[in-house]
Specification:
With 215 residues, this protein is α/β, with parallel strands linked by helices. The chain folds into two domains: 2-116, Rossmann fold, CATH 3.40.50; 124-214, Alpha-Beta Complex (putative n-type atp pyrophosphatase, domain 2), CATH 3.90.1490. It contains six helices and nine strands; from the N terminus they run βαβαβαβαβαβαβββ. The chain has a five-stranded parallel beta sheet with strand order 3-2-1-4-5. Strands 7-6-9-8 form a four-stranded antiparallel beta sheet, with no helix packed on it. Strand 1 (2-6), helix 1 (11-22) and strand 2 (26-35) form a beta-alpha-beta unit. The longest helix has 14 residues, at 98-111. The chain is globular and about 45 Å long. The mean pLDDT is 95.
């Protein structure tokens, strides 16, 4: 199979990328939807420019897809980019959102491609723990949930902090894997590519939520 990986630079797309590599498939490109607005129900916004550096570490072409982020323009822009590639389909890190998965599948069908979502309905805690166990270095770059304070901003997950995240998610009733936008991530290293991203960043915290600006 020849595939593209839809990558935001975060943990779920990194896991999907690794899954595709484990299948022995040829990854033709990492494709990043770059939302130019302030919000998107489909795509991660913080730190997506860093995917270019991840692609360099893996020696894979990177395609940036700028979009205002509005529906249906976001997938129209993505479809146009995917049409230019010689691929059988694309792989994404959709974990629990029926909205994301169904829209991607409809787009794939219109393009005559296949949409693979290998993480679909995995247990969130197991997903996080196993990524850390397999050597993924996951940094929290955005925080927007009760129970997650400023100390989590820029934190790199360990087995101990994943367990703490589970406890907080149960206490404050948020998704431990961040599927509801409770937090965003950036993967600095892992088995899906060679080398480690060395980043500098500036935290911004308003007392309730925060984001890391990655330079």
């Amino acid at each position: 199979m020849r595939v593209a990986v839809l990558s935001s630079g975060g943990k779920d797309s990194a896991a999907a990328w690794w899954w595709a590599r484990c299948q022995g498939w040829t990854i033709e490109a990492l494709v990043t939807v770059v939302v130019q607005g302030d919000d998107s129900p489909m795509f991660q916004i913080p730190s997506t420019h860093v995917v270019e550096r991840q692609a360099e570490l893996a020696d894979i072409p990177w395609i940036s897809v700028p979009t205002p982020g509005d529906t249906p323009q976001d997938l129209d822009d993505l479809a146009e980019a995917l049409q230019s590639l010689n691929i059988d389909g694309f792989v994404s890190g959709a974990l629990r959102s029926d909205y994301q998965k169904s829209r991607l599948e409809r787009m794939a069908e219109s393009l005559g491609m296949i949409s693979w979502t290998p993480l679909w309905h995995q247990d969130g805690y197991t997903h996080l723990r196993e990524m850390v166990e397999h050597g993924f270095k996951i940094m929290l770059t955005g925080i927007s949930a009760d129970g997650l304070g400023e100390e989590w901003l820029g934190h790199i997950l360990t087995l101990e902090s994943v367990k703490e995240l589970l406890n907080l998610s149960q206490r404050y009733r948020f998704n431990v894997e961040g599927e509801g936008g409770e937090y965003e991530t950036l993967v600095l290293s892992g088995p899906h590519h060679d080398g480690v991203l060395e980043v500098t960043s500036t935290p911004h915290w308003d007392g309730v939520r925060g984001v890391m600006t990655i330079h």
